[in-house]
Amino acid sequence: MERSVLITRLVPDPAPEMLRAAADRFTMNPADRPLEPAELIRSVPGHSAVLCQLTDRIDRSVLEAARGCRLIANMAVGFNNIDVEAATELGILVTNTPGVLTEATADLTWALILAVARRVVEGDAVMRAEAFPGWGPLYMLGAEVSGSTLGLVGPGRIATAVARRAVGFGMRLLYHGRRPNPELDTLGARLVELDELLAESDFVSLHVPLTDQTHHLIDATRLARMKPTAYLINTARGPVVDESALVEALRAGRIAGAGLDVYEREPKMADGLADCPNTVLLPHLGSATRKTRGAMAAMAAENILALWRGQKPPNLVNPDAWSPEHEGRV
Ligand code: GLV
Fold it and tell me: Would you identify the CATH topology of the domain 102-281?
């Protein structure tokens, strides 16, 4: 196998050097922008590995065009941008970057919880507009975070890291998932049905991957189950929430507010969302620290280097596509 890699977009150090040093052929899109779909299709053939981003749609047409490709290394923990079924069928391995972004994403989840509950962004805007009328006993009241109930939808690593932080805020913890997570149980979290979590939580925080099963998991019906005083936090994937239904719920005061980092049709937002004052809206920054992004790129590169060494890449999401044949090709 030729050690040839395409990096679809500029990524942080040290990943480019790790790959350049080991590659027979190294190609990196020098621009800090995603490749257009047509450019992607034109660029992928002939590379044994592609290091891509969650903004690259790696569908069947891209995979079929990727002649000679053995590995798609996604620089993200979520991999809903890749048609993994088609990749597996075509014998192409897919890897992601679990673990390294857990703490940064949990930190940002907490930034949203605190910001939306305590009206941090609204308050900042008041000061910048020189519109602060002076302290008042009824002025800009928000919701108490300490001692409230946090409902975590999804029982995985990021939910657990969010729960660890919640212990410091003395929160009651609920979580929903297909199976218990002993670490969450140890933190005092209680596994409940989704409807119970929605009805009981003051903050509902989403930590599920985007799949056919989780698409619009939070729709108008589920939003209606939340308390009118509750907040929805989403640092997972936009399409887990029916964003138009969310705008309706916010406008009608059916929930108190939302803290969002991800959107259904990123980078766009649903009509009306930006006009809802009870929201904090971030541009998909969950993993956006220098340390974490560097670690994510390095992890994607490590997967490619493992393949080139004839080893099973450590973060395979489709282990069924691995066969000794791959080792034989190296
Ligand atoms: C970020 O959204 C990721 O999935 O890594």
Answer: Rossmann fold (3.40.50)
